[in-house]
Amino acid sequence: MSLTPSQWAALLPLILPALGACLIPLMALDKDQTSVKWIRAAMYGTALLAVGASFWYLTDLWTTGAQPSFFQLHLDRLAQFTGIFVLVAAALTILESWDHFHQEGWVKGETLSLLLFSVTGMMLFASTTHFVTLFLGLELFSIPLYAMVGTVRTRSESAEGGMKYFLTGAVASSCFLMGGVLIYGLSGTLDLASAAFTLKSQGLALDPMVLVGAALMLLGFLFKVSAVPFHQWTPDAYEASPHPIAGFMSVATKGVAFIALLRIFPGSLAPLGAVGVKMQAVMAVLAVVTLVVGNLTALVQTNVKRMLAYSSISHAGYLMLAFVAGTPAAFDGMLYYLVIYLAMNMGAFGLLTAFGLVGGQTTFEDLRGLGWKRPAMGVAAAIFMLSLAGIPPLGGFYGKYMIFRELVGTGHVGMAILGVLASLVSAYYYLRFLVALFLQAPSAEAERLASDRPAVHAPLAGAAVLVCAVIVLAGGFLQTFLADGFARRALVEGLGLIR
Amino acid sequence: MTWLNSHPLTFLVFAPAILGALILALPHALGRLSRMLGFMGALAIFALSLAWLLGHHGGGGVAERTPWFTLVGLPVDYALTVDGLNLWLVLLTTFLVPLTMLGTWNSLKDRIGTFAAMFLLLETGMLGALMAQDLFFFYLFWEAMLIPMYFMIGIWGGDERRYAATKFFLFTLSGSLLWLVALLYLANKAGGFNPLLMGQAAALLPLGAQHWLFIAFAVAFAIKVPLFPLHTWLPDAHTQAPTAGSVILAGVLLKLGGYGFIRFAIPIFPEAAMHYAKVIALLSVIAIVYGALVAMVQRDIKKLVAYSSVSHMGFVMLGLASFTVIGTQGAMLQMLNHGISTGALFLLVGMLYDRAHTRMIADFGGVAVKMPVFTAFFFIVTLSSIGLPLTNGFVGEFWILNGTFLSGFGWGRLYACLATSGVLLGAVYMLWMFKRVFWGPENKDEDSGTHHLHADLNAREIAVLLPIVVLIFWMGVHPRTFVAVSEAPVVALLQDAKAPAIRPFVLKPAVHEAEAAEGTHATPEASAEPAAQEVHR
Fold this sequence. Notes:
The complex is a heterodimer. Chain A has one domain. Chain A is an all-alpha fold. A two-stranded antiparallel sheet of chain A has the order 1-2. Helix content of chain A is 79%, strand content 1%. The mean pLDDT of chain A is 90. By secondary structure, chain B is mainly alpha-helical. Chain B has a domain of 262 residues. Chain B has 24 helices and two strands. Chain B is globular. At the A-B interface, helix 13, helix 16, helix 17, helix 18 and helix 21 of A face strand 1, helix 6, helix 7 and helix 8 of B.
């Protein structure tokens, strides 16, 4: 089979990370990677190279404006946006994990291999409307993630969290599969866009089976974005996984799931108008529940990672509000929000690594006074937390602003009020992070223990955190560039949504 | 220089933040240098603001407006203006910042460089909020201002600082987040955040919607003022904040609430504002009396001053609710008065605390013997806070009470009488505190505060207090300097608000004069005359 250049162009960004993923395990065949540092460095270098090459290729595609496709894989603007999004998250994860795994004393190149497979799966997941390809992408990115959560085998809770994530994730995947099967069974086609047309022409738009099928597919997506009530795995999985991996999961999984959801529900299934309306109602109810549960539960956490997990649940709620508004501008806001959210959350999890908090030492107590010891990291932390809380002039504010503005514009004033009240609650627990960093002195015992330990040395994680901080700050001042030049073009030219 | 000539306000607003960011980047060891840099920078900003702004109030003020960005279909303007309504508040801000830095030079022992940086960042927030003429732009500064203030209270505050800082932050945020929804709703109707467009759009809305929107605006501003019953964050924040934080909080941040009413809430919703005038006036009267009564029983001097703030700011809101020229002008002046007098009181309490390490009234007694110069300054400021004729406090409170009495509202006379009791109570709590702290036999107790007082004011502290005393008398004797520029905008504001027909007997001569002044291109000073005459009649 010979491929046209255009087909190659669509495949290359996915092939490059997959190739890297295959190469990395081979590198440690005859050398012990735990004792030979250059092997480890070569593995990390290969991973970065694979990610960088794919990123470079995608940005090149973006600037030329080409939207190649390979059968059911459509590398349109939205897919390119997703690819860039995921690759940046992956690059930050790789940088942060070098320091993190050295701190844990558990450096395995195979983790990177899993990460790269996951990246490939994510890009596949967000670039298709064909059900089988979609499911393939879902599994390709989920299964490596299950393994990555439990990657540090020396810690017992790590395996526990990985197992929990796997079991619940498997159930969600099978629900997703069942939903697709129902729609296929009624329409006879696996491509969701043409399935929607077929069902509509057969007058089956409101058939209970179609509704059940759509609902089950929605469940699969909502599980991945960790919306309440499908969120229980989130805190355990985040707590169990290494910090950078938790950051990657919180950002990339949520991001691609939302983008794929956008492609399928308002996108492909648009002809089934009634189904879309019903699903929007479901999203509205779940968004409210997610905001309330996520924020209130985050208030009482003592562990920073669990707090960040519940915060990521609550952010899923804000992003779901974009679907409640349902306008192109709201989706523009959602994509913008995702970009900033990427920087905020990768930064927040990266901070834990940069501060040298390994394993279970991630309570608020452990953070005390660290902001003064590491001023640059402290300033970055302030930027992330205030941006997560949505305080202007930082990037996070504009994401919320765009979504709330569309909510108000479409008449959902009550939802907007609920949203701002939720972010008021969230301000409290984000401030707690800053209170610990700046406003509390470390206890005498912590000081003594700290003086016994070697000084924290995490230059790569620190650099990644600073990059994130710059992105969040820039999001507050170059908002039009990001929202119009990047997110909006992805929507307009990729999905064909015209404002 | 050409850029500076066309963007003086941009420079004034952002120069402090840039300097602050630079100072933040300096290492901790250079704290003393950072403090000096910060002070010199703030002083330069003050000098520049005087030079650039004072000369311009004859025309339409200084303004910069250019489209900034359009997001989700709503254009946002980069709009800064200094005109009659905010000129003196801007100058008050640029004046208080270097003054406070100098006044609290040695109060803090650690992280002084970071503190100076926070102070400068805060100055940018305050100046930006005072000058912004686009509601989105205003909102950015309004919220961004919380960040440095939060850290100032939280890092350098007293024992309960974490609680006070978080309460301050969340309390203010709660009002402004709900306000944001109202703002978005209105911007949606108006197609932008320009206050003029918003006012036009608001007038077309059904009355019920206008009322809700006004309430959202009013609550956000009232929290900042703070109006009873939304004042509970203030005593905590004031008491726990370091001296410099308290001074700026009282001097400028509270003013932004009142300013928000004059600048945005009343012009955009004149009808709803008139409708709720009685409620606002009632709450103001409660704040005046309640604040004074609570101040009376305080044992901590700083807390006493904090509650006196609630009482004094109640006068500002009462003046605004009167919808008369004289009442509103009184409110404008009272905002400046309060910034000067209460700011000075916090500075003085800070100076006392630095020496004695206590602020409890019972720990003092006979301070006048130990610190005669300090006592003299404290006495002048006390009198100004009470509102003795010839000092600034008198003029503002008198105009406000006058305006309320003559407002023509059914409740005007009753509320004016009730509020007058606040003036009386003000004298009671201030003089009683003064008596217990300064007069009487010297407190010989080893642990007492008086015992720890060794030195009277030094030259630096006197240099800080002298300009304040000058201003207190200047504003008391010749208030026209400070209210002349706001006469025309205030008259226009009240005309737009369609203040009831019974008021012209205060309003009429002023309107007449203002039109004459426009015709002959005379300075607005002339139009301030009638209001002043009204007072002296």
